[in-house]
Design goal:
8-stranded mixed β-sheet, 14 helices
Length: 557
């Protein structure tokens, strides 16, 4: 019986895993680091309870064409692509199963988008990504363009392997991004949408998985070329894997405070950073090992930071209200993408921000549900009011009869806030925002209220009135902070080329080493995230390319 048949029989096909046996010792499954995207962590099945061996087994050596470190989306897509190109492939993963935590994928040129009438030019779509390039970013427009060109072909490849895309859409938290993403019919269920599909295809293609093993470092030959990886199994025994190609799908660096300070210094440390909760953060393996062997690094990366009120009160995702910093001053066009306005608040020197609105607007603010934003799904007026009341009671939102009284509750300068509100109200009356250029009216897309969260149902257009006076008491202010304590992804890591080869500081490929996903996404995503789904798109695009390149390298093509 094959490994695949044995595991399908033993586990009823619910969590299909292949384990590599050893004549020297019975191994538990092995692992390295998992790859990230933008949704809660999910696995393809329940992890079995692990029985610790009574003693450490002997050291073990393996030979393989391609070894992939990490069984997240990069690991799954690269392993499949390499196996289909004729290479023998081993994936090691430090957790107990294949992983994934994303749902939408940024997209351009897909059939779903064309059918829905979303058909921007390549230049327009590239420009939407590069709009936030600044001196703290290694964003490379040529790599961005190549990434966008690879979107439709990659998704067609994914569909050919069983991924079912249900619609193109804007994520609910970003109504003005247009239909810039595609989503699975399974919505936020990453396991059903992607992980189970890819794991099954990998097993069918002969890929072997080793779970519950920690990658220790890259093996180098005397010539400095990468020759494999060392790892430690769950029983403590050492494993040497000699490989012709190595793919790093080890995630980002959000779990390492020092790497965050060094490679994403603009991210505030409002902590404590949650490293064990909803978001599984990468530990910077790719950066540490890359630096050790002379790889070039993206020097100033970023991360997914957005406004969050701890009680989930109004976060005004469409920008219908007035946003001010801790100094009482306005700092951006509130209708900007949520990641960009968070960056604007930080650039203005604000440790926190406030969303101001009046009694007329309190139940009209669009705060569509977001897995990463902590926002409350509205549509039911009582729900929004109930959560706002809870935030007021908890002290993270405020209610007052005058702007001056509201300022005192917010602990900001009353004269400054009053002047800010007066200037903003004048813009609302005239319909022209001379300060930041926010339009009076903007058309966005959102879930049909009757089909919220249905990823098979088309979204609808919605007109948002964005310039709304703050004039009818009581007045409200929701306090928001930036969720670095729940950092769901990082941007940066290693520099790669279009074949996903890791580059050294001279710009030349490091022999036999490939990377994708959060381990190497800083050339495609700058310090500010342009819109949701782009990081997840890159994991599959460059994961597939890494697998193809690794197989060709291993076979001497």
């Amino acid at each position: 019986m094959s490994h695949i048949e044995e595991n399908n029989t033993r586990q009823g096909g619910l969590s299909r895993r292949a384990f590599i046996g050893s004549s020297a010792a019975a191994l538990a499954a092995l692992a390295a680091a998992s790859v990230t995207g933008c949704a809660p962590n999910a696995t393809s099945g329940a992890t079995e309870s692990k029985q610790q061996p009574a003693e450490v087994g002997p050291a073990e050596t393996k030979e393989i064409d391609v070894v992939v470190i990490g069984a997240g989306p990069v690991g799954q897509s690269s392993a499949l692509a390499a196996a289909e190109a004729g290479a023998s492939v081993l994936v090691i993963e430090r957790s107990g199963s294949c992983t994934g935590k994303h749902h939408v994928l940024a997209a351009w040129g897909t059939a779903l988008q064309k059918e829905a009438g979303f058909d921007p030019t390549l230049d327009e779509y590239v420009a939407s990504i590069c709009a936030y390039k600044d001196r703290s970013s290694d964003l490379d427009e040529d790599m961005v363009r190549y990434t966008v060109e690879q979107m439709a072909p990659t998704y067609e490849w994914m569909e050919a392997h069983g991924v079912e895309f249900g619609r193109c859409c804007a994520i609910n938290g970003e109504p003005f991004a247009g239909l810039s993403s595609v989503a699975s019919v399974h919505g936020r269920d990453t396991a059903k949408a992607f992980t189970e599909v890819f794991e099954g295809c990998c097993l069918d293609a002969g890929v072997e998985f080793m779970f519950d093993t920690e990658a220790n470092g890259l093996l180098l030959g005397e010539d400095g070329a990468v020759r494999g990886v060392t790892a430690t199994a769950s029983d403590g025994h050492v494993l040497e894997i000699h490989a012709r190609s190595v793919v790093l799908g080890t995630g980002g660096f959000g779990g390492d405070d020092e790497l965050l300070r060094r490679y994403a210094p603009w991210i505030p440390n409002f902590g404590p950073l949650d490293k064990t909760g909803q978001w599984t953060l990468g530990d910077g393996f790719a950066i540490r090992e890359g630096k050790r062997i002379g790889a070039d690094l993206c020097s100033q990366g970023g991360g997914g930071l957005i406004y969050k009120n701890f009680e989930g009160a109004n976060t005004d995702l469409a920008g219908q209200a007035l946003h001010v910093g801790s100094d009482g001053k306005r700092f951006c066009d509130e209708s900007a993408i949520r990641f960009a306005r968070t960056r604007s608040a930080l650039d203005a020197g604000n440790g926190e921000a406030f969303i101001l609105y009046d009694a007329d607007l309190v139940n009209e603010l669009y705060t569509g549900a977001s897995s990463s934003g902590g926002a409350v799904a509205t549509g039911e007026v009582s729900e929004a009011q109930e959560v706002l009341d809870a935030a007021i009671e908890a002290g993270s939102a405020y209610k007052a009869g005058t702007i001056e009284e509201l300022a005192r509750l917010m602990n900001v300068n009353a004269a400054v806030l009053s002047e800010t509100v007066a200037v903003y109200n004048a813009a609302c009356v005239s319909g022209v925002d001379d300060q930041f250029g926010k339009p009076a009216i903007k058309i966005g897309v959102m879930d049909d209220p009757a089909h919220v969260g249905d990823f098979t149902y088309p979204q609808i257009e919605q007109e948002f009135r964005l310039l709304n006076e703050i004039k009818t008491p009581p007045f409200y202010a929701t306090r928001v902070t930036y969720n670095s304590y729940q950092l769901f992804q990082t941007f940066g890591g290693l520099k790669i080329d279009k074949q996903a080869q890791v580059l050294d500081v001279e710009g030349s490929p490091i022999a036999n080493l490939f990377a994708a996903g959060e381990a190497a996404n800083g050339q495609m995503i700058g310090a500010t995230y342009p819109f949701s789904g782009l990081a997840a798109a890159g994991t599959y695009i460059y994961g597939r390319l890494a697998g193809q390149s690794a197989a060709a390298n291993a076979k001497g093509a």
